[in-house]
Amino acid sequence: MRKALLLFVAALTVAATLQAQTRRGKVEITGDVQVSELVKKHIEFNERMRTVPGYRVQIAALSGANSREQAFDLKRRFKEDYPEVEVYIIFTEPNFRIKVGDFTSKLDAFVFMRSIKDRYPGTIVKENVFPIHLDMSNIVPETDADAEM
Q: What is the number of other CB atoms lying within 10 angstroms of the CB of residue 70?
């Protein structure tokens, strides 16, 4: 009796699975109108921001007397060592922070940090947001309206 019951349940399960696989239907998602409005606003905001998340390596944070001169001197020395890497001086009272590089992955930033750690001790990787610089010189407009932009 028990085997017959298990066999019957197994047959029902197989039949239900086959029936579910052969059905085709239309899925309709019903949601709050405010949610779709928020999604639209989020998309518009992201289109206006034109930024991308990334990382920079902070090589120093200076404060006190002559910190401005020290920061610009460190920037000059770093550019001599690594002319291909961008250097940024960020002033947030009372500190001058010297950050280098524009890395899109944390791994790339850490690899670079390790390569300069002996020369610039105390370096750390910091999250950053970069503006997107679009090169519009090689874009061909599709319509006359696009050309006017």
A: 16
Q: Please identify which residue in the block is written with the tokens 């500190």.
A: 95
Q: List the one residue out of 97, 123, 91, 129 whose CA is nearest residue 110.
A: 123
Encoded amino acid at 70, one letter: Q
Whether 147 is covered by a domain: the verdict is no
The CATH number for 86's domain is: 3.30.70.1070
Backbone angles phi, psi at 94, to 5 degrees: -100, 20
- Domain containing 117 equals 53-130
Whether the pLDDT of residue 6 is over 80: the answer is no
Using alpha carbons, select from 49, 41, 59 the residue that is nearest to residue 129: 49
Model pLDDT, residue 18: 60
Note the pLDDT tens digit of each residue in 52-95.
789 999 999 999 889 999 999 999 999 999 999 999 999 988 89
